Amino acid sequence: MNSTLRAVVGEDQPLVREGIVSMLARVNIEVVASAANADDLIRSAAEHRPDVVITDIQMPPNLADDGLRAVLRIRATQPLVGVIVLSQFLDAGYALDLVGDDPSGVGYLLKEKIASPDMLSDAVRRVVNGGSALDPDVIASLVGRKRTGDPLGGLTPREREVLSLMAEGHSNAGIASKLFVTVPAVERHVTGIFQKLDLQQADSTQHRRVLAVLTFLRS
Predict the structure, then answer these.
(1) What is the pLDDT of residues 128-148, one digit of tens each?
(2) Alpha-carbon distance 97 to 100, whole Å?
(3) How many other C-beta atoms lie within 10 A of the C-beta of residue 32?
(4) In the list 14, 87, 122, 175, which could disulfide-bond 165, CB 3.0-4.6 Å?
(5) All domains of the chain, ordered by start, with CATH?
(6) Higher pLDDT residue, 92 or 165?
(7) Dihedral, CA atoms, 105, 21, 28, 134, nearest 10 degrees?
(8) Which UniProt keywords apply (predicted)?
(9) What secondary structure, in 3-state letters, does 140-172 show?
């Protein structure tokens, strides 16, 4: 992969769009095209084949969830393109629609939480590398939902914390830093999560992490 990542940005408000483009430029991410509506976003992604598409949820022509629908179409035709949705709204339903059957390469961030170019850059590089970047507040809202027949019921509180941070897209080292514990301690918790969710037979650790996150998000 080239050192300079390439992005397509979708945002109908010019000032916000220019702000996103400026933030990306400051962290060496090249914006190869920008779009003010969902149709142009899809066309631009097909033409430029970027590393990542970053878009608002609400865009013309309908000013509903057009941006989200656009990146779902882009993801279906270009599965290697990372996608990040920026939203004013804390809506777990949108996040679940975006994740679909695989959280790899997707991000859902609240606009108000993007405080610096480095924060946006971290999310971009995570999704481009096949990880995820889900806003902690979205994860918290999913954790708080009432559940029936909860498959996560056997997890300890610490294991739930670890799984929640996995869902946000953090590595074991990142989780260890967040929880002020050692990486081996996190690895033990992750192993316990896999065992309790009956994911020991999955074909790779990364695959098991994806399955664990999907169980967490959809339970």
Answers:
(1) 998 888 888 777 766 555 555
(2) 5
(3) 15
(4) 175
(5) 5-140 (3.40.50.2300), 147-218 (1.10.10.10)
(6) 165
(7) -30
(8) DNA-binding, Phosphoprotein, Transcription, Transcription regulation
(9) HHHHCCCCCCCCCCCCCHHHHHHHHHHHHCCCH
Q: Can you read off the two tokens belonging to residue 126?
A: 């995570």
Read off the pTM: 0.76
Instruction: Supply 54's token pair.
Output: 């970053």
Report how far residue 203's alpha carbon sits from residue 210's, in angstroms, rounded to the nearest whole number.
Answer: 11
Q: Are 89 and 111 spatial neighbours (Cβ–Cβ below 8 Å)?
A: no
Burial class (CB in 10 A: 0-12, 13-18, 19+), 97: middle
Tokens of 120: 């946006």
Q: Which residues pair with 29 in a beta bridge?
A: 5
